[in-house]
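User: quick one, fold this
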Amino acid sequence: RLHRLASLGTLAASIAHEVNNILTPILSYAQLALSDPADADLTRKALSKAAECSAKASRIGSAMLGFVRPEDEAVRVHVASAVADALACLARDPVKDNIETRIEIDPNAWVAMSPTALEQVLLNLILNAREAMRGRRGVLAIAAKPTMCSTGNVLAPGVEITVEDNGAGMPPDLLARAFEPFVTASESGVRRGHGLGLSVTRSLVEKAGGSIVVTSRPREGTKFVITLVQAPALAA
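Assistant:
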């Protein structure tokens, strides 16, 4: 839970900036409507734009509250929804940082993991990817597809989730220690961080009975592959 709060602390400045960018046009549209209340078309347009901005602010707020809520008891989560919630926590559109986001999620992908835990895992990896691509044109690719996974000595239906970037990558010595606590890429000048994100990520994945592996090459990017047990979809 403390790590989730720390992750939001990392995002605080960009969240505040984005919310301010939403509030500014709401105020402007309200002032515009008040300037000529007899103009019905102007008032309708102003209210429509203000409502649109308010809805966006509400989505960001809901994502924040969902991310810091106590660990839930649910044991299955819709992968596409978890990805959407994790991206919403960023508040700032990756496009503004010159990052293209490519999402290819099987709409029927559900995994046996708590929604809060999967969202935290995804946000950790997305934050790392964004940092790795800072200052360059980047591509963040998130995908999920059916696979088979090992649970003990038994193979069972699973879901493979990948988070990949074309950023700075990691040298071999850092890659070998990537999941150790308090190891940060800032040691090699590649990436900054407080050194707990990947350690917590692996812990959450393994707690759910899954696995996570990483491949990376300097200046070519990093790819994380998470394998989790498939869970039955919720009935409609």
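User: anything notable?
Assistant: The first helix runs from residue 2 to 35.
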